[in-house]
Each structure stands twice: as C-alpha cells, then as structure tokens.
Amino acid sequence: MKRFYIRFLFLGLLFIIIGQNSFAQTYKLRATSVAVKSQNERTGYWSNWSNWEQCNILVVMNIDQDVVTIYSKETQEYDIIEILSNDQRDSDGGVTTTLLCVDADGTRCHMRLRAQSDGQLQLYIDYKNLMFVYNVESR
Q1: What residue spans of 23-125 are helical by DSSP H?
Q2: Would you say 88 and 98 are in contact if contact means Cβ atoms under 8 Å apart?
Q3: Helix (H), strand (E) at residue 59
Q4: pTM of structure
Q5: Lowest-pLDDT choice from 28-32, 118-122, 129-133
C-alpha cells in the first residue's frame, strides 16, 4: 500500500510539472534581416535607416522568465521590466506592443514587437541614441 501511495504521489508531481511546462509562454522567432539607425551626438539628428542586411538569427521571448534573448554574433539578453503598452494601433495600421527592458550592461531600452498591416513582424530595440529593427517570422 505504501508503494502504491509513493507511486501515486510521484505521478501526480510529474503531471503537475508537465502541466506547468505545457503552459509556458516561450516564443521563438527567426530574424531574417536587420537595419540600424543612430543619432549623431554633435547635431542630435538621426541617420536614415541602414539598408537591410540579411541574417538568420534566433530570437527567444521567454515571457514566464521576463527575458528576451537574441542569438546574434554576440548574444543579446534583455530583462523585461514592464509592459508599457499592449496592442497599440498606429497610423499605418500596424499593431505594436512596447516593453521596457534592461540589457546585460544595465542600460534601459524599449523593445517593440510590431505587426504591420501586411502581416510582417518587426522587432525594434530602441536606445537613447541607437535603434535596431529586425524583420522576424514566427517559428
């Protein structure tokens, strides 16, 4: 009887662990191209966006752990501090969710996941004087 009870507890615990993992909110995206723009420190003017550069980069958004990881040449890891806006519609018909994040160096930035009206997904990372945008696809 004791053996049955131990097996029952073990199976119950296993189902609880499996159940929690099946509801985990982890999203994997594939970045296919990237562009950059920067602000001139002297003049304060922003450059135009660079030309799109092709890439093949994994982006993992782990909402349960409040972490976004971009596996570029140098791995970029961002801790999510707060969701600032969720599903904001812009004048171009796109929908954007904005996150306040901090990178591995402790620098704050905004991360925007934007779904354009044509269905294209873009991930923006906005610093005070530097911006990245990735065209991404869900995996």
Answers
A1: none
A2: yes
A3: strand 53-62
A4: 0.79
A5: 118-122
Q: pLDDT higher for 129 or 7?
A: 129
Distance CA 66, CA 24 (A): 12
- Count CA atoms within 13 Å of residue 74 on its CB side: 3
| 113 Cβ contact list (under 8 Å, min separation 6) | 96, 97, 99, 121, 122, 123, 124
In 3D, which of 54, 58, 73, 74 has the Cα closest to residue 26? Answer: 58
Nearest partner of 98 among 129, 135, 68, judged by Cα: 68
58-90 b/e (C-beta count within 10 Å ≥ 16 → b) = ebebeeeeeebebeeeeebebebeeeeeeeeee
* CA-atom Rg of the chain in angstroms: 20
- Tell me the C-alpha distance between 74 and 89, whole Å: 32
Overall residue count recorded for the chain in this entry: 139
